[in-house]
Amino acid sequence: MELILQLFATFFVMGLVNFGGGGAMLSLIQTEVVTRHAWISEAQFTDIVAISQTTPGPVGINCATYVGYEVGGIAGSAAATLALILPSLLVFFVIMHFYARWHRTRAWSSAMGALRPVVAGLIGAAALVLMFHLGFGERGLECSVLRENFPDWKSWLLCGGAVAASLAFKVNPILLILIGAVAGFFLY
Q1: Angle CA 16–21–24, to nearest 5
Q2: Which residues, in sequence order, are bridge partners of residue 140?
Q3: pLDDT grade for 131, boundaries at 50, 70 and 90
């Protein structure tokens, strides 16, 4: 029961402080469940992120559901999912109360504009967390490629192709995920 309460508390705080959706939340989830609590390994987290992105629903909620199940079974899954959603529901009702009153003010527009670069930075951080291991060693800050995620040149080619297709050709992200799944099936 203590582990279920820890899962609930951890995901509740993540749900409370997250802005920008599941993609922006991935680095926070990784820090909490892999580094801080050591509930799962980096390789397991990468698999969970991949599954979360290919299944229907928000990535953050899917990730919480899978992590909760890995850590505490069905009860852990329910606790992590509910804990992640609950703050959003509470904040939503509070925001709607204030939005109805202040949505046309300059302060509201400024606050919403300030959140955009923060969300972009969090999404970028999530991508870097899945690509590199950063840590402090004997010589200071050390950076290494996560071999579980990028085991060979084919994985780098898939990553580069997806980035190029997304940026240069504006390929739909859902299509990129499906193409990546098919390519991964045949390449690995």
Answers
A1: 95
A2: 137
A3: confident
Q: What is the mean pLDDT of residues 166-180?
A: 91
* CA distances (Å), origin 82, targets 11, 20, 63, 68, 155: 9, 18, 12, 10, 35
Torsion of CA 81, 84, 88, 89, to 10 degrees: 40
Structure tokens at 58: 């928000």
Cα 101 from Cα 93, distance rounded (Å): 13
CA torsion 164-166-172-173 (nearest 10°) is 100
Which residue type sits at 127? A
Angle at 35 between CA 75 and CA 11, to 5 degrees: 35
Q: Domain locations in the chain?
A: 2-109
The Cα 146–Cα 122 span in angstroms is 19
Residue 20's pLDDT is what? Answer: 67
The dihedrals phi and psi of 152, each to the nearest 5 degrees, come to: -155, 180
Residue position matching structure tokens 């192709």: 161
Q: Please tell me the pTM assigned to this model.
A: 0.57
